[in-house]
Every structure is written in structure tokens, then in C-alpha cells.
């Protein structure tokens, strides 16, 4: 494997599970020292066991990204262990399907707090330190394609991800002069344990969702992780404010696909 991230220090929020753990593994196998942060020690311990079993230099810190002071302490402890953070991946999120009129203020605040506030608190903490230290760095925000379109059933997540998209572009411009690149990855449906449980637990719903993906399958965790790897690599040195969509075409208009398929079967 290409060790192009040798010695870089990476912080991944929500890095103990699902896509976060996949990203941690990809970047760790590329030579990075990997710190993972989330609320539940059990998730972090499982993540650490996995990462260390792959000989990755890994460290975990408990932090709720909704709390700015916990974020600051988490970054302090990563610095104490590995040195200054070079790369931040804002991956932590919560989500569940609910009609908007039934979403409680607590549900709204919790998801928006994790996704939008959390991504800003972490970016601010890492960005501020990079600027003070005069060091270059890279941030990748994990969003979702419904940041552009809205997402019926997930008004909290869609609104928060749209905010993170705006934040990505804003910070990309503000921090370009400091050599800090800020980009986003928008995954389509990937069968992580968290997403499957919260978003398509019903088998019919799962099938319906899959039918909306022109490539006809779920994405793989590794496919998202490799997109993140590209964006944090030196090969993307002139890329900032961009979003790399990794969704098998799900977010592209495909209303006429059925008609096209019918015509293919009956060419005359
Ligand atoms: P997941 O395994 O449920 O990941 C969510 C992670 O966020 C967990 O590790 C969780 O750990 C952490 N987290 C939640 N609230 C937190 C908080 N307040 N503070 C710190 N950490 C917190 O789900 P996933 O599918 O891997 O999703 C990862 C990212 O990909 C999310 O941003 C999601 O929106 C995005 N995404 C996923 C899909 C998909 O189909 N899987 C599609 C589009 C976008 P703790 O519980 O330990 O805190």
C-alpha cells in the first residue's frame, strides 16, 4: 500500500464505527497516525481493536462533538499523544426517519448539533491551531447528496448537511491563504450497521432505496474511504471547496430510466 500519509496526524469524529472506521483504516494503512473520537467508549474500543489489529498507530478519545469544550479537550489529548493534527474528518452524525411535523425539538437539536455545530466546533478548533502554528492541513466533511436536494423524512439531517456544505465552501475560501484545504464527500447509501438500522431497517424500504441507485447496488465503505484519501492527499493539493459524490449515480436525475430500458427491449 502507498504510505503517502506517513507520519500525518488524523482526527476522525465517529471513527469507531461504519464509514468513520473505514476511513480511519484507509488513512492508517497509508501511514497516518489515527485518532478517533465519539461519545461511546464501547464503539471506540471496538474501533481501536480493529485498527491496531491492522498495525495502525491508533488512539481514541471520548468526546461529544456537540460540546465545544469537549472538542477542545479532545484535540489537546490528540496533540499530547501524536502531535498537532494535520487532517480532520468530520464524520460524526445522527439520523433517523421521521415526518417533519412529528420531529421533536430535541431530535432536531441533537442531529443539527452533531452534524452542523459539531463539524464547525471541530473545524474551528483544528483550523485555529493550524493557523497559529503556521502549518498546512486538510479537512474533509462527510455530507450526503440530499444537502442539495433536501431529503423527505430526514429534515434535520438534510438541513444540517446543507449547512455543512455551505461551511465547506466558506472555510475553503477563508483558510486557503493558510494552506488549509476544506472539501466534502457525499456518499450514497452504504450498508453500515448504523445506517441500515436507522434508515432502511424495513426490507421493502431497502429494496426501494436500492432501485433508486442507477448502479444497482449499495456503496462499499472502502469506496467512500478511498475518495476521502484522495482529497486529503498531496495529489489533491489544488482542490478546495469541492464535493466528491460517491453514490453510484443516485443523486442524478433518472426519472426516464425506465422508459429508456423499455425502449432498449423493444428497439422498433
Ligand atoms: P454510524 O456508524 O452510525 O456513524 C455515526 C458515528 O457518529 C458513530 O461512530 C457515533 O459514535 C458518532 N457520533 C454520533 N453522535 C456523536 C456525537 N454527538 N459526538 C461524537 N460522535 C458522535 O453511521 P455511518 O453510516 O458510518 O455514517 C457516517 C457518516 O456518513 C455520517 O456523517 C453520515 O451522515 C454519512 N453518510 C452515511 C451514509 C450511509 O448510507 N451509510 C450515506 C450518506 C452519508 P458514538 O455513538 O460512539 O458517539
TrEMBL record:
<keyword id="KW-0444">Lipid biosynthesis</keyword>
<keyword id="KW-0521">NADP</keyword>
<comment type="pathway">
    <text>Lipid metabolism.</text>
</comment>
<keyword id="KW-0276">Fatty acid metabolism</keyword>
<protein>
    <recommendedName>
        <fullName>Peroxisomal trans-2-enoyl-CoA reductase</fullName>
        <ecNumber>1.3.1.38</ecNumber>
    </recommendedName>
</protein>
<dbReference type="Pfam" id="PF13561">
    <property type="entry name" value="adh_short_C2"/>
</dbReference>
<dbReference type="InterPro" id="IPR002347">
    <property type="entry name" value="SDR_fam"/>
</dbReference>
<comment type="function">
    <text>Participates in chain elongation of fatty acids. Catalyzes the reduction of trans-2-enoyl-CoAs of varying chain lengths from 6:1 to 16:1, having maximum activity with 10:1 CoA. Has no 2,4-dienoyl-CoA reductase activity.</text>
</comment>
<keyword id="KW-0597">Phosphoprotein</keyword>
<dbReference type="GO" id="GO:0019166">
    <property type="term" value="F:trans-2-enoyl-CoA reductase (NADPH) activity"/>
</dbReference>
<keyword id="KW-0560">Oxidoreductase</keyword>
<keyword id="KW-0443">Lipid metabolism</keyword>
<keyword id="KW-0275">Fatty acid biosynthesis</keyword>
<keyword id="KW-0576">Peroxisome</keyword>
<comment type="subunit">
    <text>Interacts with PEX5, probably required to target it into peroxisomes.</text>
</comment>
<dbReference type="InterPro" id="IPR036291">
    <property type="entry name" value="NAD(P)-bd_dom_sf"/>
</dbReference>
<dbReference type="InterPro" id="IPR052388">
    <property type="entry name" value="Peroxisomal_t2-enoyl-CoA_red"/>
</dbReference>
<dbReference type="GO" id="GO:0008206">
    <property type="term" value="P:bile acid metabolic process"/>
</dbReference>
<dbReference type="GO" id="GO:0006633">
    <property type="term" value="P:fatty acid biosynthetic process"/>
</dbReference>
Amino acid at each position: 500500500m502507498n504510505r503517502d500519509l506517513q507520519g500525518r496526524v488524523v482526527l476522525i469524529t465517529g471513527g469507531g464505527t461504519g464509514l468513520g472506521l473505514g476511513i480511519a483504516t484507509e488513512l492508517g494503512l497509508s501511514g497516518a497516525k489515527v485518532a478517533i473520537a465519539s461519545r461511546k467508549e464501547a464503539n471506540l474500543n471496538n474501533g481501536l481493536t480493529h485498527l491496531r489489529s491492522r498495525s495502525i498507530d491508533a488512539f481514541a478519545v471520548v468526546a461529544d462533538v456537540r460540546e465545544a469544550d469537549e472538542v477542545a479537550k479532545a484535540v489537546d489529548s490528540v496533540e499530547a499523544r501524536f502531535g498537532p493534527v494535520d487532517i480532520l474528518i468530520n464524520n460524526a452524525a445522527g439520523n433517523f426517519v421521521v415526518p417533519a411535523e412529528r420531529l421533536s425539538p430535541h431530535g432536531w437539536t441533537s442531529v443539527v448539533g452533531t452534524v452542523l455545530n459539531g463539524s464547525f466546533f471541530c473545524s474551528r478548533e483544528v483550523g485555529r491551531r493550524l493557523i497559529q502554528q503556521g502549518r498546512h492541513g486538510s479537512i474533509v466533511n462527510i455530507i450526503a447528496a440530499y444537502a442539495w436536494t433536501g431529503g423527505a423524512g430526514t429534515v434535520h439531517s438534510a438541513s444540517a448537511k446543507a449547512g455543512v456544505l455551505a461551511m465547506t465552501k466558506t472555510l475553503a475560501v477563508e483558510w486557503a491563504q493558510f494552506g488549509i484545504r476544506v472539501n466534502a464527500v457525499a456518499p450514497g447509501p452504504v450498508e453500515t450497521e448504523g445506517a441500515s438500522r436507522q434508515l432502511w431497517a424495513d426490507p421493502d424500504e431497502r429494496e426501494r432505496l436500492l432501485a433508486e441507485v442507477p448502479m444497482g447496488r449499495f456503496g462499499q465503505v472502502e469506496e467512500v474511504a478511498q475518495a476521502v484519501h484522495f482529497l486529503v492527499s498531496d495529489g489533491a493539493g489544488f482542490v478546495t471547496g469541492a464535493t466528491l459524490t460517491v453514490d453510484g449515480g443516485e443523486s442524478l436525475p433518472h426519472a426516464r430510466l425506465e422508459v429508456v430500458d423499455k425502449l432498449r427491449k423493444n428497439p422498433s
